[in-house]
């Protein structure tokens, strides 16, 4: 079994395997698209095998995000592991999960118009959509993309995933966009080297893209959130929505937020250092798969290993400012 650890002590054999639990996923109505942790699982009703525990990259899974989605309707549910299940052999997750789809309504705040100006980072996909964080453009009705050469392109919110803080922006002519960044087809492990390009604190640091790098320090995020990576890549306001990139020039995640050091210090008396998070690319892929029939293709950059200087030179023109007003 994958990622299994076998320990032999004297004449006793204790096997710690990667164990899974079958969970039935039903929806009202049925025959809608199901995603588990961002990975498509067909149409409902379906049975999904959820990792419960095991050693390796996905050890001791505590939660899984299930999303049901159809045109204009969705529902999501985070299923949590029972804290006592490991010791008493009970099933850690519910046997059946039911999702009731509801119409996607605009946020009340969205209808009130903008409350403040926001600046974030975005980048195109090969489908012609520009990716950024939803919190960057939420509550704003005017969005402008600013390319590295200073050209400004109006954009609108075409699709959003509020749960995973992803927004897809659309422009009237996708030919105006720079080359798209390729998405990684493999998952990085803890310790993998990654970097981002973005536009932190533009009023102070300027409007040229800024590079920071680090590693993936954990395969789960805040309070073991399975949707995000914890990363050591330094982030500031304005990096939100930027691509988290591997050594092949492929996007493995979307830079999202950093741990609020001041609040943590107030709670604990300890000042955390360089604790940042990125949404895993699975969740963007799930959203793109749902919308691919409505896309306008954009040429994609080549992928492949290179030194950091060459990677930055290859990618930087494709990373753009997202201005929301």
- Specify the number of helices: 7
Strand proportion, as a percent range, falls in 35-45%
Fold-level CATH name of the largest domain: Thrombin, subunit H
Write the CATH homologous superfamily of the largest domain: Trypsin-like serine proteases
User: In CATH terms, what is the architecture of the largest domain?
Assistant: Beta Barrel
* Nearest-integer average pLDDT: 81
Helix content: 10-25%
How many DSSP E strands?
Answer: 22
SSE string: EEEEEEEEHEEHEEHEEEEHEEEEHEHHE
Low-confidence stretches: 1-17, 54-61, 83-87, 105-114
Structural class estimated from helices and strands: mainly beta
End-to-end distance: 52 Å
Largest sheet: 6 strands, antiparallel, barrel
- Arrangement of strands in the largest sheet: 11-12-15-14-13-22
Number of domains: 3
Give the radius of gyration. Answer: 21 Å
Describe this structure in words.
This protein is mainly beta and 325 residues long. The protein has 3 domains: 5-103, no CATH class; 108-176, Thrombin, subunit H; 193-318, Thrombin, subunit H (Beta Barrel), CATH 2.40.10.10. The protein has 7 helices and 22 strands. The strands form 5 sheets. It has a 6-stranded antiparallel barrel with strand order 11-12-15-14-13-22. The chain has a 6-stranded antiparallel beta barrel with strand order 16-17-18-21-20-19. A 5-stranded antiparallel sheet has the order 5-4-7-8-10, covered by helices on one side. Strand 1 (5-9) and strand 2 form a beta hairpin. The termini are far apart.
């Amino acid at each position: 079994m994958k990622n299994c650890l076998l320990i032999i002590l004297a004449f006793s054999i204790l096997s710690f395997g990667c164990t899974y639990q079958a969970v039935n996923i039903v929806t009202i109505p049925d025959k809608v698209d199901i995603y588990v942790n961002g990975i498509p699982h067909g149409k409902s009703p379906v049975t999904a095998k959820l990792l419960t525990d095991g050693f390796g990259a996905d050890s001791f899974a505590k939660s899984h995000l299930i999303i049901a989605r159809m045109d204009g309707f969705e529902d999501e549910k985070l299923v949590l592991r029972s804290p006592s299940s490991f010791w008493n052999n009970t099933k850690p997750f519910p046997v059946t999960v039911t999702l009731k789809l509801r119409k996607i309504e605009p946020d009340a705040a969205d209808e009130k118009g903008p409350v403040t100006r926001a600046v974030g980072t975005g980048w195109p996909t090969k489908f012609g959509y520009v990716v950024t964080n939803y919190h960057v453009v939420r509550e704003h009705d005017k969005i402008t993309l600013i390319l590295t050469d200073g050209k400004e392109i109006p954009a609108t919110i075409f699709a959003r995933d509020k749960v995973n803080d992803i927004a897809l922006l659309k422009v009237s002519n996708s030919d105006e966009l720079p080359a798209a960044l390729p998405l990684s087809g493999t998952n990085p492990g803890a310790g993998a080297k990654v970097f981002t390009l973005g536009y932190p604190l533009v009023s102070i640091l300027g409007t040229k893209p800024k590079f920071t790098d680090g590693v993936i320090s954990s395969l789960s995020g805040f309070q073991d959130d399975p949707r995000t990576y914890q990363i050591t890549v330094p982030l500031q306001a304005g990096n939100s929505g930027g691509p988290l990139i591997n050594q092949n020039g492929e996007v493995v995640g979307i830079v999202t937020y950093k741990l609020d050091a001041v609040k943590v210090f107030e709670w604990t008396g300890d000042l955390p250092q360089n604790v940042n998070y990125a949404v895993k690319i699975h969740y963007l892929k799930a959203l793109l798969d749902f919308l691919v029939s409505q896309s306008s293709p954009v040429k994609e950059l080549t992928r492949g290993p290179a030194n950091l200087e060459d990677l930055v030179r290859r990618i930087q023109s494709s990373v753009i400012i997202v201005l929301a007003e």
